[in-house]
Design brief:
The protein is α/β, with parallel strands linked by helices and 523 residues long. Strands 3-2-1-12-13-7 form a 6-stranded parallel sheet, sandwiched between helices. The protein has a 4-stranded antiparallel sheet with strand order 5-4-6-8. The structure holds 5'-O-[(L-methionyl)-sulphamoyl]adenosine.
């Protein structure tokens, strides 16, 4: 049995399945996946939750536009997200859909709990509403012609009965929490943003929409003419996915205060910086209201931009990650996205940078693998020499330490850079040792054994270090080294390789020009 501290629960936002999955969705999900795989690789018991956010006006309007029901659209499009995550080798433990009955039951129980505790009151909302962002704006926030300040689309003026959650009452508690836990919101720039937001009085939160206007949602248990605001519905998915609330039990019997038997609280919620406020203000205050513990951490990443512009469906400049995958393979797309974007900052997507990063896989790592396997094949008939192979042990240990520290600080780009530096160093070691010269001199057979054993050992360590980002290729590389599996991180210094038979095979990452040549030859 794992002790509770060996457990990790991490989440991505649940995506609106009103359009196709794109690079932004893929990035958050791959970021979470790489983190999840690093944790598993370190022997932790991980639960990774992702899914789709299916209620709300936007889904309904898109469905109507396509001549479908909202349910048909969400069935069709959530399947697209699932398929994309399969293609991108995402290892989630649950794909949650907010239309699933257990989630509907948990939202109902959660809201009933707030209602029974007097955390919700009836009021009236008048203002401007952006359907696309699913949020209200006050007149002073709007752009020219009452455009939404976030997405630029027209907003609608509305006045309606709403139920409000007493969010403002939790302002001080939330501020105290953020101040007492400096690492709670990462990176610091985002934490400061939220502190800035909380420097203004915090208003109460409208948590419902009249059914007459938004029919596609979860009815409020005490007033079924109103449905839950889609953001409240969506945020609660994290609790549904944790199994903290048993939807088959009446709300009064729910053990909201004791979540110890469940996965709640989450270790980290991952998301883009665009939806930090909902996660760092609405969500924790809702949890406080319901009497549930807060998530242990919130990590907001930056945006992929094309040139200077945010990449988004509305700008029509979205890169389809699945198209890149067809040419370069899944692992190369994962590598590019994670290696190129420093966690938390924005990054610009360009084909040139993609090729620069691909080149590392082909010419640094791929080259190291090819020459190591090739020389073992040529000089030792493919049998890994039974020599200590400790020539790069110091570097392997130092890389492992950097990776552990980087992963703990969510600096995954640094972890990947450290691994690639080790591959670069190993290529340097080949040049220094000149195994081709050692091979010519029978008196230096032991030196050659040591060189080859060191290189193989380094490659084995690299499969462990890079498996989270390149799972397909690293499993293959481990197999070519005669290993049954990629070693765990803690095992890298004691993997037994001597006597294994290697398999040379084709290049792991063919050079980009080879890919082009192959594509040109294809019928
Ligand atoms: N459904 C809400 C989230 C509810 S979570 C309780 C939502 N969905 S979304 O489909 O719009 O996905 C938003 C997420 O996609 C962002 O937070 C971010 O994680 C990711 N990205 C969308 N575009 C992006 C970029 N151009 N670059 C990087 N990530 C971005 O909001």
């Amino acid at each position: 049995m794992n002790s509770p501290s060996r457990r990790r629960f991490l989440t991505t936002p649940i995506y609106y399945p009103s359009g196709e999955p794109h690079i932004g969705h893929a990035y958050t999900t791959i970021l979470a996946d790489v983190l999840a795989r690093f944790w598993r690789q370190d022997g932790l018991d991980v639960f990774f939750l992702t899914g789709t956010d299916e209620h709300g006006q936007k889904m309904l309007e898109e469905a109507t536009r396509r001549g479908m029901t909202a349910r048909e659209l969400s069935d069709q499009m959530s399947a697209r997200f699932k398929a994309a995550w399969k293609d991108l080798d995402i290892s989630h433990d649950r794909f949650i859909r907010t239309t699933e009955p257990d989630h509907v039951a948990v939202v109902t129980a959660f809201l009933e709990r707030l209602w029974n505790k007097g955390e919700i009151y009836e009021g009236k909302y008048s203002g401007w509403y952006c359907i696309y962002e699913e949020r209200y704006w006050t007149e002073k926030d709007l752009g020219p012609d009452h455009a939404c300040p976030d997405c630029g689309r027209p907003t609608r003026e509305i006045e309606e009965k709403n139920y409000f959650f007493r969010m403002g009452a939790y302002q001080q508690r939330l501020l105290d929490h953020i101040r007492d836990n400096p690492e709670w919101i990462q990176p610091t720039i985002r934490r400061n943003e939220i502190l800035g937001f909380l420097a203004q009085p915090l208003e109460d939160l409208s948590i419902s929409r009249p059914k007459s206007r938004v029919s596609w949602g979860i009815p409020l248990p005490w007033d079924p003419e109103h449905v839950a605001y889609v953001w409240v519905d969506a945020l609660i998915n994290y609790v549904t996915g944790s199994d903290a609330i048993d939807p088959t039990r009446a709300p009064a019997e729910q053990g909201f205060e004791d979540t110890s038997a469940s996965r709640w609280p989450a270790d980290v919620h991952l998301m883009g910086k665009d939806i930090l406020t909902t996660h760092a203000v609405y969500w924790p205050t809702l949890l406080m209201g319901a009497g549930l513990p807060l998530p242990k951490g919130i990590l907001a990443h930056g945006f992929w931009v094309a040139g200077e512009q945010k990449m988004s469906k509305s700008f029509g400049n979205v890169i389809d990650p699945l198209q890149l995958r067809e040419r370069f393979g899944t692992d190369a797309v994962r590598w590019y996205l994670l290696r190129e974007m420093p966690t938390g900052q924005d990054a610009s997507f360009t084909p040139e940078r993609f090729l620069v990063r691909y080149d590392e896989l082909a010419n640094v790592l791929g080259n190291l693998a090819s020459r190591t396997l090739g020389m073992t094949d040529k000089y030792r008939q493919g049998r890994i020499p039974d020599a200590p192979g400790t020539g790069l042990d110091g570097e392997i240990a130092a890389t492992l330490a950097t990776i552990r520290a980087s992963v703990a600080g969510y600096r995954l780009h640094d972890a990947l850079a450290a691994a690639m530096d080790l591959a670069r160093r190993a290529n340097g070691y080949v040049e220094e040792r000149e195994p081709w010269a050692q091979a010519k001199d029978p008196g230096r057979a032991a030196d050659l054994d040591e060189t080859l054993a060191t290189l193989v050992r380094t490659l084995a360590a690299l499969t462990a270090f890079l498996q989270p980002v390149c799972p397909g290729k690293m499993v293959e590389l481990a197999a070519r080294l005669g290993l049954n599996a990629v070693p765990r991180l803690e095992e890298v210094d004691r993997v037994r390789l001597g006597g294994n038979q290697v398999r040379k095979g084709e290049p792991l990452f063919p050079r980009a020009e080879l890919l082009d040549a192959a594509a040109a030859k294809a019928p």
